[in-house]
Design brief:
Ribonuclease N, alpha+beta, N1-like, signal
């Protein structure tokens, strides 16, 4: 290989490596690893450092629950609107009663399932699809 091609080959390899390391998917769903791991660049201050998901990319059931929250109910589950204790401490710390949780129906589940929306008194909304093991800030 002539010496003048070596820098071009190296540059090409570096670009390929960068693409592989950062990912180059055409898009991601709310439940995909790509959306879980990428904090939003235009996220509000309360979501700083968290993974985010636009409300429009939530599962349809979560969007329906979000609409019920906006309307103030009625909610299908007795525990909807209950205080969320944040015992896992995945959300910013606030006094008890700051957060409230709402069930997001899981198709095929016989019980409430693992999906929830959690709201904060400051207008924050968080989504979890793994029963509080992780959260994404919902961007509206």
């Amino acid at each position: 290989m002539p010496p003048r091609f070596v820098p071009r080959v190296l540059a090409g390899l570096l670009v390929c490596l960068a693409v592989l390391l950062t990912g180059c998917s055409g898009g991601s769903t709310p439940d995909s690893p790509a959306s879980r791991a990428s904090p939003g660049a235009s996220a509000p201050a309360w979501a700083h450092g968290m993974a985010t998901v636009p409300a429009s990319r939530l599962p349809a059931e979560a969007r329906r629950t979000l609409a019920l929250i906006d309307r103030g109910g009625p909610f299908p589950y007795a525990k909807d609107g209950a205080v969320f204790g944040n015992f896992e401490r995945h959300l910013p710390r606030h006094p008890r009663g700051y957060y409230h949780e709402y069930t997001v129906k899981t198709p095929g589940s016989r019980d409430r399932g693992a999906r929830r929306l959690v709201t904060g008194q400051g207008g924050e909304i968080y989504y979890t699809d793994d029963h509080y093991d992780s959260f994404r800030a919902v961007l509206r």
